[in-house]
Amino acid sequence: MDELKVFSGNAHPTLAQAVVEYLGMPLGKCEVFEFSNENIFVRILENVRQRDTFVIQPLCSPVNKNLVELLIMLDALKRASAGRITAVVPYYGYGRTDKKDQPRVPITARLVADLLTVAGANRLLTVDLHAAQIQGFFNIPVDELTALYLLSRYFKDMEFDDLVVVATDIGISKRARDLAASLDAPLAIIEKRRAGNVDQTETLNVIGEVEDKVALTVDDEIDTAGSLVGVVSALEERGAKEIFACCTHPIFSGSAIQRIASCPVKEVVVTDTVPVAGDKKLDKITVLPMAPLLGEAIHRIHTGLSIGAMFE
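The chain above was modelled as a monomer; its predicted structure follows.
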């Protein structure tokens, strides 16, 4: 492991520290700060020549600052002759702009992929992309981890007898079906329509039986929680007796926390791919640690072991 170096930007240093503790090594030394003119400065403070380097930086709020910070860190490592550079992006920002679904709009998820590659990334390690095709936007290897087993284990321990897993839209149905299979529970799907470019959705229908059952909604991320509130309302109307929610990425932007606090959902289980701190903490929000999963993946990439074997 002497040739392995793990660095962190300012997006989520707590997660990076937990990862290196799992690996039993110190965090790489670097300076990453912003000048008064908002230009970002990066300096790697140790030798990385021909080393296997990893940069941990989720593209969470402030998204654009954290993205540019990551790009500059990758460039700094490339110019310092690092042997291999892996961008560890637990949350891939701009992942929802993954196709042209309107005239004259960009595919920003592809643009970010190009930026990371040009900046110097030789491979990407990420968690639960919004859409599977984003892997194909890269011409470098992409390892996509999933929090599905972490979430599944949590709810298995709760030992529900009458659980139904609910996909919050058609797009997440495959992931929800996998979770339902691991929990030995039936699947229901919410059919919904997004209203333009605003962060609002109109819930249309519940496909499946949820009456007198404990409903567990699953999604890749919770952003403003508007969809979650609509789904919970629809499930209540259909007679669900208790409602739990889970997702990988707790973005919690805008009025999300207030909506979750006032929503009748009993518990929201998330991971720490992005920081959940300060006013984003509620008693009904449970945060599961991702550091062991990321740390094991980094170890396997460094030593040439299989990533897929982690989930078998």
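The first helix runs from residue 13 to 23.
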